[in-house]
UniProtKB/TrEMBL annotation:
Keyword annotations from UniProtKB, A to Z: Repeat, Signal
PROSITE patterns per record: NHL, PROKAR_LIPOPROTEIN
Name of the featured protein: NHL repeat-containing protein
UniProt cross-references to PANTHER family, sorted A to Z: NHL DOMAIN-CONTAINING PROTEIN (PTHR13833:SF71), PTHR13833
Pfam families in the cross-refs: NHL (PF01436)
Record flagged with keyword Membrane: no
Presence of keyword Repeat: yes
Source species, domain of life: Bacteria
Taxonomic lineage from the root: Bacteria, Pseudomonadati, Bacteroidota, Sphingobacteriia, Sphingobacteriales
Annotated signal sequence range: 1-22
NHL repeats: 172-202, 225-256, 275-310, 334-364, 422-464
Length: 467
């Protein structure tokens, strides 16, 4: 896992098929059977990928082949039949002969009509019949439907160091956290410099807090000490929250420049309580809601913690043992969650890094999966950071080298970068390259900022959409 002062263990990345998805609820299959055996069980991918006016990507997962070999699989779709079958338009994918379950497949759909609603579901056939997944509905764009993302460098130059200044003259050392305030100022957890930096929209970088010395000291912000600061969040009053990873505490820096400890005591553990009575284990991502509640991706405890404005710490979801379980509260399981974001409705979204998944937690603690999963590492791969815009769209910093958007219409766009290709290149879309992007934030103007950790810089993404 990519964490300061600790060795990272990469999950193996599968070849790029950018598609299949374990959705949050169990998808039921419908089956057309014959008398010669048992049909397969198949689910439909819950997201449409890179949707345009005439093309889309989808796919499915075969979880049971039945009692005979798969003879055909793909997706079927129609603009008129709300429960499409293989007699409608369909794709036919290469049938896997590996014998490994589950079988994930990707379908590239072409020849769609602009501005049209389609109904789609996965299918799989064997001698026992044809099974179908649940129906997914999507609408193509009316025009070219292009999503073009321009990537530039806001601050930093790729060289490890510590320097305030404007644009490329500033230097960072493995930045791992980032947050934007209401004015558009960016706050950065400069992890290996053990400092908190501030970057204006014009790219002027200054130091907000920290001496650069590894330690644990509250007080005046510039005299405060941190140990590998990681996640960042900013509330409406301008208070900055820091997940102090190495110190196992959550810090707060007021707008007046005073650093204090909100929760935790410097000792690693998994204890709920108030203020310093609570303990954490390598807290990573952090978010704050409109009521002042702080949410923490407690990375080493495989849990999501909640801290009230009064400093009362509880466990919202998860249990110390790593796993992948959708359930409620401590019956759910995560695998080294690394990023969190909170919406206005009280939902919390989690970059569940070890599970290659994006999870959602309701205010009641009910956990579901929005995208990805342990068998779909080519989809989300290794999510490190997560952010929301005002409309509820989700943005993901995939440590594998990509920046992604999951829209409220359940469409996943690869905004920039290429899976498992590292570099430091500005440009558009997949021509731009990152090196272990760790954190992501969105400002009020929908500009996207990324803490590009191993490039030691802050990148800016500007998205242009044509309808």
């Amino acid at each position: 896992m990519k964490t300061p002062y600790f060795r990272k263990v990469f999950l193996p990345a599968l070849f790029l098929s950018v598609l299949v998805l374990a959705v949050s609820c169990k998808k039921t299959s419908t089956t057309t059977t014959t008398d010669t055996g048992t049909a397969p069980t198949v689910t439909t991918a819950g997201l449409i990928i890179n949707l345009t006016s005439t093309t889309a990507q989808s796919g499915g997962t075969i979880s049971d082949v039945g009692n005979s070999s798969i003879t055909a699989n793909g997706v079927c779709y129609s603009s008129t039949n709300k429960t499409p079958t293989i007699t409608d338009s369909k794709t036919s994918e290469t049938v896997s002969t590996s014998g490994t379950i589950p079988i994930n497949f990707t379908s590239n759909i072409t020849g769609l009509t602009a501005g049209t609603t389609y109904y789609l579901r996965a299918y799989a056939s064997n001698s026992g019949g044809t099974a179908y997944g649940s129906v997914v509905q999507f609408t193509t764009s009316t025009g070219l439907g292009a999503v073009v993302t321009a990537v530039t460098t806001l601050a930093g130059n790729g060289t490890v160091g510590y320097a305030d200044g404007t644009g490329l003259s500033a230097m960072f050392n493995n930045p791992s956290g980032i947050a934007a305030d209401a004015s558009g100022k960016i706050y950065v957890a400069d992890t290996y410099n053990n400092r908190i930096r501030a970057v204006t929209a014009a790219g002027l970088t200054t130091t907000l807090a920290g001496t650069g010395v590894i330690g644990y000291a509250d007080g005046s912000a510039l005299a405060a000490e941190f140990y590998g600061p990681n996640g960042m969040a900013v509330d409406a009053q301008g208070n900055v929250y820091v997940a102090d990873f190495g110190n196992n505490v959550i810090r707060k820096i007021t707008a007046a420049g005073v650093a204090s400890t909100l929760a935790g005591n410097g000792t690693a553990g998994f204890v709920n309580g108030t203020g310093t009575a609570a303990t954490f284990n390598n807290p990573a991502g952090i978010a704050v809601d409109a009521s002042g509640n702080v949410y923490v991706a407690d990375h080493g405890n495989n849990a999501i913690r909640k801290i009230t404005a009064a400093g009362v710490v509880t466990t919202l979801a998860g249990v110390k043992t790593a796993g992948y379980v959708n359930a409620t509260g401590t019956a759910a399981a995560f695998d080294h969650p690394n990023g969190v974001a909170a919406d206005a409705a009280g939902n919390v979204y989690v970059a569940d890094q070890g599970n290659s998944a994006i999870r959602k937690i309701t205010s009641a603690g009910v956990v579901t999966t929005i995208a990805g999963g342990p068998t779909q590492t080519d989809l989300i791969n290794y999510p490190a950071g997560i952010a929301l815009d005002a409309a509820g769209n989700i943005y993901i910093a995939d440590e594998g080298g990509r920046i992604m958007e999951c829209t409220t219409a359940n469409v996943l766009y690869i905004l920039a970068g290429t899976l498992n290709v590292s570099g430091f290149v500005n440009g558009t879309g997949t021509s731009a390259l990152f090196n272990s992007p760790q954190a992501i934030t969105v400002d009020a103007n929908n500009n996207i900022y990324v803490a590009d950790q191993n490039n030691n810089c802050i990148r800016k993404l500007t998205v242009t959409r044509t309808p």
